[in-house]
Amino acid sequence: MVGTPDLRRTAVFAIETLAVALCYYAAGRLGLMRELVVGGAVFTPIWPPTGVALACLLILGIRAWAGIALGSLLVIMSLTSLRPAAIGNLAGNTAAPVCAYLMLRRVGFRTDLARLRDGLALVFLGALTAMLISSTVGVGLLLLTDKIDAHSFWAVWLAWWVGDAMGVLIVTPVLLVLHTLRRPLHLSRWKEATGLALITCAVVPLAIHSHVSLLFLIYPLLIWAALRFQLGGSMLCALFASVLATIAATDRTGPFVHLTRVEVMIKLQAFNGTMALTALLLSAVIAEQRNTRRSVEQACQELAEVLEHLTAGDTPPGRPTKDDDP
User: Fold this and answer.
1) Domain total for the chain?
2) Domain that holds residue 175
3) Cis peptide leading into 184, omega within 30 of 0?
């Protein structure tokens, strides 16, 4: 019986590791469905495994690194044989989200993203800074193995870095929102939510597949979703628009027609990046303001109760009287 707790912990760790690895691998296969070519290298505009990896670390803790490494190994082995360069990519893909997690924990990051500082931390530390590791290691290995030319280094590096960062900005918030959901769901504005979903499903495909530049029509929907449904609504809207925009960019349709490969990458990543930043930071600001307002209202209510008791000559609840003093 002494070894039962240890055996149980080992079993839980093995199950969590396998679950994280499968989620990482599934996200990788989804990301590989849409690819762009820049500088002679193939890359994915949005790399969902980075978002999945960071979300797993934030939810499960540092022990999730083993599942991330295993999932990255499965993705790499599905594309190529296990060579020294592949081992380097495995290390970079594992180290980037782990460093992101450690930096976010260092600054007191909260997974509910209810503060502006949490949104800024996820953007600048989790996405833009930590993903420098995976992009630098990956593209550096491509250069060392003569897979790309030296003059293509920065173009490929930028594409890799932005793709990894987009995975964090778009996928991680959605997974964190799903993790915090509790049943039963009490959606008081379900009619408005249904209307927003229907309008989004109609406007977003129109804006993305139109040859006229109508991408700006998506931003009012993001603002509406953030104002009324905060992070969950805005990030789901951003995820839907990003997926459709990526499909249009890889198919060279809509506003991406007649553009060069580099121009397609720049336009797509600028759109995805500004949209994710708008949804994430606006939702964080709104949530922070609402929490502040609730705190002020609660303090005012407590003050009103104290004044009411003092006016009536009673002792406010929770306060000692003179007779109670030692």
Assistant:
1) 1
2) 7-314
3) yes
